[in-house]
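yo

u said u wanted the structure for the complex thing, so here. seqs first:
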Amino acid sequence: MREVAVVAFAQTRHTGHDEGLSEPEMLLPVLGEVKERTGLARFGFTCSGSCDYLAGAPFSFVSALDAVGAWPPISESHVEMDAAWALHEAWVRLQHGDVDTALVYGFGKSSLGDLREIMTLQLDPYYLAPLGLDQVSFAALQASALGADEARLREIVRRSRAAGRANPCALDLPDPGEEEYEVAPLRPSDIAPITDGAAAVVLAAGDLARELAERPAWISGIAHRIEPHYLGMRDLARSASAADAARAAGAGKGHLDVAELHAQFSHEEIILADALGLSPDTVVNPSGGPLAANPVMATGLIRIGEAARRVMDGTATRVLGHAAAGPCLQQNLVAVMEA
Amino acid sequence: MGERCAVIGVGQTRYQTRRRDVSIAGLVREAALRALDDAGLTFGDIDAVVLGKAPDLFEGVMMPEAYLADALGAAGKPVTRVHTAGSVGGSTALVGASLIQSGVHERVLVVAFEKQSESNATWALSTHLPFTASLVVGAGGYFAPHIREYIRRSGAPDHIGTLVAVKDRRNALKNPYAHLRIPGITRELVEATPMLWEPIRYLETCPSSDGACAMVLAAEHKVTGTPAWVHGAAMRSEPIFRAGRDMVDPRGGRDCAADVYRQAGVTDPRREIDVAEVYVPFSWYEPMWLENLGFAGAGEGWKLTEAGATALDGDIPWNASGGVLSANPIGASGLIRFAEAAQQVRGLAGEHQVDGARRALGHAYGGGAQFFAMWMVGSDRP
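structre next:
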């Protein structure tokens, strides 16, 4: 495979409420930041991830293109998925060898609707959606299947929120206090907060990556896998697709200093750490992770960006970025990056 | 670019107003199994699945790739979901081809679908963000002014759109998958139908269809049967609100075609391409795209249509399958163009086969005529 690296990453200062910005307005400063950092105004390929249902209108990616400056016309595509999958598509495109740079971005404003209800529309419309189980109920089923120790969940939340408070882009959330169950065994703080935000990554190949960044975060492996949709077909306490993706990405071939996991519920971190084979000394979600900021459709890309950032700033040499989609971690993507 | 890629299997469903006999999963599986059967493969031979469809609001299922993973035999594999508006079917093929051309995978299943009977696409396309006025209804309301501007610029006579409507529906009678079948269709019949969006009459617009299309793409060393080789592939996008862009003759379309022609070594598309499957959802888009894709000079496209050059027996048949005007499961419509182009160079197009077709163009566009996906396929290994 051709050498490809993350050479720039930027994200908004995410908010827990609507700031009145349109998606292109939210995106524009982030795109400006990665362009300034790389000195690139044009890219060989551009790919984004977003979801129409967050805006409640078709084609939310269309107006986003107005923030990119797509003139003259650009080679561009879009996934209706978390932008981590857009990054994968861009990495694949760079393997062709005819273009050397790619811009990847994702954005989402979950403040505008009822995310729990919206995510229900992702379920099989004939057999699952009519049951009326929402996203949190599904997650709680998984947490129950795991038999997660509530003290351990609470510690994950406490650590994530503390890290989030130290991250200027994440939300400022207090240590978890006494809470009633939202859906047992999950409490409100076990659930990723409603967040608006956007993020962008620039990928570059070979020598150009070395020119554009002092310490590029080289992608040594990237892969994603899906598993059956129906919960009855899966062992909910495990994530077979995360484990498969990690194997395909070569996650276990060396020590991981940092892992940024797309865990939107505290118990998912336990399942993922196990599936990815993380050792106890791998630092998990030093950014605070999704429990401290969850701009849906950008959250997975931010995991890759946050992990890459630690290679680029010299504080880590080998890191993992993870993204997930679908009910109960149905789909998982793993990117391993090295100095 | 990159590794060679070929189409080795194509599967389509019959396109019709309502497929009450299948669920969404049943619909995509039908196309997928036909493509696998054509390739002599099973789901077990597939490395990755790429799924495309237009806005999720059309069926009311958000990110349906999660639900459709089971029906597409995708468990344990990578699944990518593409959405680039009307061009999505074409983009889906290109994303699949890219997985082969990159050397990442060896056999990829690409599937695109729409089950428009689940909702009303015109109204799904007419929702707007809160507090913004909707000035148009549906895609026809958006594109009619572009067509009027084309007529003004080119001086094309009024009947050109009618000619395309008749030609494509006559071609559809030779395509067993086509949705609209109007035996004995004439100009008079088209002209007698109601005006929907001046100058687009009812029979000059595409239908709303249920349907799915699938292809199996393979790397060179996995090619079996009769392949259609990818000779060129490109995408282009331009911003919808850029004041200076020409919506009648978009630069994105011109640049995308130029990129594909360069890769395929084509310098004179009208003479060097044997057949084209081009996204024509409203009849007038045939002359408009004839110019945009370089088959005719500015203002000259309608003359090719009028002279019959784009008919099945013309020198450059366009939409031998009947095109989008005869079947339009929106998210699949672009992939159907790409697949029909492949079937032509494989010599497997059936009754609407263009004799001796060796090089074919597949084209799709979407959004406000701002997203373009195209590929050139050929019977010869590039």
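Chain B has twelve helices and eleven strands. Chain B has a mean pLDDT of 95.
cya
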